[in-house]
Design a protein that fits this description.
Length: 338
């Protein structure tokens, strides 16, 4: 009888507790649901003012429920409700516009600065590859076919005449020009993705891909330079190339960061080191897609219509200066970091 009476007393206390406070919990839950789905303007002024009061009431109910060891399901419900209220009232909330602004003003440049060693290593590897490709083709023109895919060569090779090569640069071969431009953009996009995605294999594939891309660039330059058109080819490629090659260097750097973190994790586990490196690398790669879009626009519009060598070099040099200034010279403060 005594045990039964005690059980009845607990049930009565729980029922009384619910009856007194459940209306406030439901009201708080309903307001949170409305404001989470839409925005604060979905609530009236009185409803907004009631939110912190209802939150404190829910906290008080949770404290009582825990202290008196009431129903565990009720305690779990109140904990979840209070957590939702806390995140809404006191958690950091940023709009989509703020997040995008923070990415371009802080997150992306900060990621590139964090990768500065890998980025400039990637640039150096591109230069080494270009020198190697140039030297190989200059020493034996058969290397050209081994380095350059037929779809990229488009029939142009070390035996092509200067007139045929010049026609590509200044619009005489419009069909080939547009096809070659489209192939270069597709190729460089694929190189960027592969250089990043294969970096997990201790960065070796990323290094090889960057070197091979440089080799291709050097091989193409050699056949033009041999006909006295190296300067002209540099201008033709620079309009979009300074942006596109920089993007490839960053993609390779992102892959290297992941690969070297896995190979040399330090005090972290390999998984933890890869996850830490992945956050920086992923931020950089989101930006790489933006750079490739810019390069595509420059390639599709500027390079097809601008035939002045000086103008081509000016645009390419200006874009390179813009990216370097944006990444390394301008230091923006993220919203909320002050």
């Amino acid at each position: 009888m005594t045990l039964s009476a005690g059980t009845d007393s607990v049930r009565q206390s729980l029922a009384s507790f619910r009856q007194e406070r459940e209306a406030d919990w439901k009201a708080f839950e309903a307001l949170l649901a409305r404001v989470e789905k839409r925005a604060p303007r979905a609530l009236s002024e009185d409803e907004l003012l009631s939110l912190p009061l209802l939150y404190r009431s829910a906290l008080s109910s949770l404290s009582v429920a825990r202290a008196t060891s009431l129903d565990s399901a009720l305690i779990a419900y109140l904990e979840a409700l209070c957590l939702r209220g806390y995140f809404y009232l006191y958690g950091a909330r940023r709009s989509l516009r703020t997040r995008i602004g923070d990415f371009f003003l802080h997150d992306w440049p900060a990621a590139i600065r964090d990768l500065w060693r890998e980025v400039w290593t990637s640039v150096g590897l591109t230069l080494i590859g270009a020198i190697a490709g140039y030297w190989l083709v200059a020493s034996d023109k058969r290397w050209y076919d081994a380095i350059i895919a037929p779809s990229l060569a488009g029939g142009r090779n070390p035996d092509s005449s200067a007139e045929a090569l010049r026609s590509v640069l200044y619009g005489g071969g419009d069909h080939f020009l547009s096809g070659f431009a489209a192939y270069l953009f597709t190729h460089n996009t694929q190189v960027s993705i592969l250089a990043f995605a294969l970096g997990f294999a201790f960065a070796v594939p990323s290094v090889l891909i960057i070197l091979m891309n440089g080799c291709m660039l050097g091989a193409i330059f050699q056949i033009y330079a041999a006909k006295g058109l190296g300067f002209e080819l540099g201008g033709w490629l620079s309009i979009h190339g300074t942006t596109e090659l920089f993007a490839i260097a960053i993609a390779g750097a992102a892959g290297m960061r992941i690969g070297t973190s896995i190979a040399f994790p330090g005090e972290l586990t390999r998984m933890a080191a890869a996850a830490q490196a992945g956050r920086v690398a992923a931020t950089a790669m989101i930006g790489v897609t933006v750079m490739l879009l810019f390069a595509g626009l420059l390639e599709g519009i500027g390079r097809q219509t601008i035939t002045s060598d000086l103008a081509r070099y000016s645009i390419g040099g200006g874009m390179l200066a813009l990216w370097i200034s944006y990444f390394y010279l301008l230091r923006m403060v993220r919203h909320g970091d002050r």
